[in-house]
Design a protein that fits this description.
The protein has 105 residues and is mainly beta. The protein has a domain at 29-100. Helices cover 14% and strands 39% of the residues. The strands form two sheets. Strands 3-2-1-6-7 form a five-stranded mixed beta sheet, with helices on one face. A two-stranded antiparallel sheet has the order 4-5. Strand 6 and strand 7 form a beta hairpin. The structure holds zinc ion (ZN). Zinc ion (ZN) binds next to loops.
Length: 105
C-alpha cells in the first residue's frame, strides 16, 4: 500500500509556486474589458484587439484577424495590421500576452 500523502510529500517538491499570480486559482468571475494585446510570435510582435480581466489581469479572447471593409469595395475586407489596430483603438491600453504586463505606447 502506498500512502498518497507520503508519496506526494516525497516526490512533489514543496516549492511549487511558479509565479505568485498565475498559480492562484481564480475565485472570481472574470470581468473582461476590451484592451489591446501584444503578442510576440516567432520574434515578430503583433498587436491585436482582445480582452482582459480587470480583476486579475488575465487575458481573455484575442481577435487574431481583425478585418475592416474596404472603402468603395463592399465585398472586400482587409486585414488590419498592428499600426491600424493602434489607430483604431487609441484609447485602449496594451498588455503583453505572455506576462500580462502593460506596455507603454
Ligand atoms: Zn479574473
Amino acid at each position: 500500500m502506498v500512502n498518497l500523502e507520503d508519496y506526494e510529500s516525497e516526490f512533489i517538491p514543496k516549492h511549487r509556486k511558479k509565479s505568485k499570480k498565475k498559480s492562484k486559482k481564480s475565485d472570481h468571475k472574470h470581468l473582461y474589458e476590451p484592451c489591446l494585446v501584444h503578442w510576440l510570435i516567432q520574434d515578430s510582435s503583433h498587436i491585436m484587439k482582445g480582452e482582459r480581466c480587470s480583476v486579475c489581469g488575465k487575458i481573455g479572447d484575442v481577435n487574431f484577424f481583425e478585418t475592416e471593409p474596404v472603402e468603395g469595395k463592399p465585398r472586400l475586407c482587409k486585414l488590419l495590421g498592428g499600426k491600424e489596430i493602434l489607430e483604431k483603438y487609441p484609447d485602449l491600453d496594451i498588455y503583453d500576452y505572455e506576462t500580462g504586463e502593460q506596455i507603454e505606447k
